[in-house]
Design a protein that fits this description.
It is a single chain. About 35% of the residues lie in helices and about 25% in strands. It is α+β, with helices and mostly antiparallel strands. It folds into two domains: about 160 residues, Uridine Diphospho-n-acetylenolpyruvylglucosamine Reductase, domain 3, CATH 3.30.465; about 100 residues, Enolase-like, domain 1. Strand 6 and strand 7 form a beta hairpin. It starts with a strand and ends with a helix.
Amino acid sequence: MNNFKFLSASNTKEAIKLSSSKSKFLAGGMTLIPAIKLRLASYSNLINIKKIKNLNGIKVSKKSLKIGSTTTHSDVSSSKEIKKIIPSIAELAEGIGDPQVRNRGTIGGSIANNDPAADYPAACLALKTIIHTSSRKISSDKFFIGIFETSLRKNELIEAIEFEIPEKSSYAKYPNPASRYAIVGVYVAKFKDEVRVAITGVESCVFRCKKLEDALSSNFSPSAIDSVNISSKGFNSDIHASDEYRAHIIKVMAKKAVSNCLD
């Protein structure tokens, strides 16, 4: 591991002031630290943001759920407020990694990293999320760009993630048995005016599936998915699952998610 300076910020302004083109914000470090250890990444400074109080916590209003960026997966999964208002997010968080990862990893770190098989990006796309940063608000539809790539600018810090409250929602995942990353993950959210379906683990970046959205908008039931044809073109194919198998599992997980919404 290359040498670096470890700095701590007490507020967002201080964190931004300390940042540079050769620095990185650090919260849980579940991906960042291994990347540095393996020499896949190198920075002059790591800026600890865990001490910034207003980046942690959960706020609920009539229309939305707002989660601070340094809130851990464990806190999300155990939150009574989240279980009451959008239980699918709590269930998603409980399925991330292992207890060690859930107690250190953060929601903001997961979204900023945008791993192709991460769970939270699917929740963000399905739930009409707004990502609040140190300088602006970004719609989730414009946030996730490509593999490990987002629309975040250099030295821009995620402060909170705001989810719109759906009528019903569920996340169904076919996990890698070791890492619990999604081989295929499908998040279904039903709103008054539309149905949104987001898929992770299948392409280089999380995406919405219009075919499933159209079918479920007309008939919100598992049977509506039967007639949908999912092409495997462009899908990931690896030792865990072929592209064609992933296409098949999308429909299986989508049916499961819709069934959970109707239970």
